[in-house]
Each structure stands twice: as C-alpha cells, then as structure tokens.
Prior knowledge:
2 domains
Amino acid sequence: MDYIKNLAKTYKEEYKEIFNCIKKYKKIAIFRHIVPDFDALGTQFGLATFIKDNFHDKDVVILGDNHSTFTNRLFPETDKINDSWFDDDFLAIIVDVGDKKRIADPRFEKAKCKIKFDHHPETEKIFDIAITNTSMAAASELVCNFIFSLPSKYVLTKLAASYFYIALVGDSGRFQYGSTSAHTFEIAQKLLEKGINITDIYGKMYLKKVSDLEIMKYILNNYKVSPHGVAYYVLTNDDLIKLNMTSDRGKENVNLFSNIEGINIWCSITEDITEPCFRISIRSRDYTVNGVASMFKGGGHAQASGAQIKDLTELDSFIAALDNLVIQKEENK
C-alpha cells in the first residue's frame, strides 16, 4: 500500500518546512478547537507526545478546554500556562480547526510561526504553513501521514499511537463514515503495529453509565421528525440541569438516529448559555449538509457538520432548510 507515500509526495515541501520549524523552536504550543471531540483531543495529545518523545529539549504545551467525560478517562488534563510563557518566540501547531474564532486559546496569535493540520474546508488563511485536506476522515490522518513520512529514527510510541487511534476512530465513526478510505485503513494499520490495545480503547471511548440511559430515554421520548425525514432532539439548559449533563455532551447521542429507515438527516440541538446560543450537530448518509450549516453560522464536512442558532425561534427555519435538501434531491431524480 502506497497511500501514505503518495500523500507525502503531495506535501513534500510543506513537510520539510514543518519539520524544520519543529527542530527550530524550543517552545511549541499545540492548539485545537473549542468544545473538543475525539479527533481534536487525540490529534493534539498524539502530536505533543510524539514531539516530546523525540525532541527532549522542547517545551511542549497542550492548550484548550478539558472535556467533561473524555478528560482523565482517555486524555490527561490540558496545560494551564501563564501569559508570560508566550513572551518568547514559539511555534503554534493548530489541529482540526481552520476557523480563527473556534481555536480554543486565542494566544495562538502570539506565535512566531503558525502551522495547521486540518480536514475541514479552509475558511481563513491565518497560517504560515497549512496542510488542509477535506478528503481525510480525521485530522489525525494528516498528522500521522506526516509522522510516518519522517526518517525511521523518529519513533511513534504506543501511547502516542493510542491517542491518534482514538482520534481516527472518533471522526470516522468507527470507520463507517463516507470519508473513510484506503488511506484511513493504512494509517490505522500502522498505528495497530505499535501494539495499542484496541479493546481497552473502545471500552473507554464508548463507556456508558446508568445515568446515560436516562439521557437516551429522555431523547427517545422527546425527539421529533420533520415531514421529510429530519430527526432532531433539543436539549435546553433546563434539560441539561435535569439530566445532570454539560452542554458539550449534547451531541453524544446524535447517532441514535443513524441507520433508521425513513430518517435522512439527524441533528442534536443543545443550548449553551455561555455564548448564548444553541449548538447543532448535523449528520447524514446521503445528503450534503455543510451548505445548510454555513447558512447557520457553521460548516464542516459533507455528511457531518456543525451549526448554531441564536434561540429556538430559528429552529423552524433551520429544519426547513434541511427538509429542502431532501425535497431538491427527490425532484432531481
């Protein structure tokens, strides 16, 4: 299989520049998006671990908000860094996000050099070196491709490989999403060769508690389906309090509605009083939803996107826009 080598040829010059930057800067900060998911956290911790393992003189920090359930179960806590750390020249590596306003820590802007690895459509050119490829299932695919293209003396440890595998599994939907490719599986193979324990990884990634059954029960008792097969559930802040859950967990059950006959698109709609807004996760098998997401302050992949509405007065318009995707496809048959 030559998928990794072929992609490395595409980014040969960028890889050279990135590697030289990693060698050059003593201070390196790894950033990712707000409200982190498996891919954001796994890619961030995997890359930081790889750099620490191979460049012992580097001061590497991992920045951004922790996750209410993934942190300590799958990943350590992120670093709490004083502003003075950023007074010196440092390299910023930003993963899994291309939109400036969604980068979890604004101090990335102080970096002398900014590098990005991302698989979302590029919205802003704010980076000195960018590896952007929307055909990848996960940002970790791109970072791993870079790492596997380096000379063999640079090692990827079992721990770093485990982080990257979590990222890959999470954003590929356990290798079920349409973005999963032969390249995805070649990366997965090379990670497995590092001796990672996938039984342990899957067990921790998808661990459920009895309280989670109450959340699923509430969703199944309160979801709605539009006239054209858009399934959705709404979790207001009052619902979150009642269910003893944080807003970042609102999308955890969105795929309850995948593989259900008659459901074409499915969404979670969760209130976030810190914005304030309702954050939306959109999924589909057969419909391209990122266009609608962009109409509602969002974006993302063709079949997996995020959006937001200010309040529930916008909900009908949002669902109607998704319904219209189904109507248009039916009319074009």
